[in-house]
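Appendix B, Record 12. Input sequence as logged:
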Amino acid sequence: MLFRVVPILLTLLSFITHQAVTGFDISCNSNVAVYWGQNSAASGSLPYQKPLRAYCDDDSVDIILLSFLYILKGAGGYPVLNFANVCDYTTNSSVPVFPGTQLMHCSDMGLDIKYCQSRGKIILLSIGGATAQLNSDAATFSQQVWDLFMEGSSPYRPFDDAIIDGVDLDFEQSSQMDIIQFANNMNQFYKSGTRKYYITAAPQCPYPDANLGKLLSQAHIDMAFIQFYNSGWN
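Logged structural output:
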């Protein structure tokens, strides 16, 4: 098995416990990871989730996963993001979208990402989710992720010059993309970077996970965020 299991406390933003920490440390067994971006604490209604920056002021949080990049190949061949009420062009016409795509330009989130990183957090982009459309090929999509969100180059960068710390794979249905090849490609890109990057996965509790089982056994994964809350386990 090629992934390193690091104990992580995974929580929704409505259930954060407060414990002073100095920041993310992969060797620590008490890191707290939260998924942000789907307004889950309010179940999609008011009061809306706060901007990303607000949660980075909580010293108990170490890892924040931006949720989600949910369409791998949308208009113009580019991926599509959804963060509920934040940077949502479908409900707010002032949110810019890159020409010929459905890819949102979220400059404020870019500033928040930098702020969070200055507070010792790592920021991962979660790919997938319950309504994901996993319809790309590994070579194209891995290159896009590197170029759009990390140290690659593209005129279409959703978070401007902010650089995320890695990606999370939350595949809850079968994918047309070779997920193992995608992970291998990302790990190769990481080797060319100037900072430490991570690749994580969010399997459901029953093992092996129907959609991520092969990934966990055949590719290098830094951390696994087990979905105890979403697997029929009490």
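The first strand starts at residue 8 and ends at 12.
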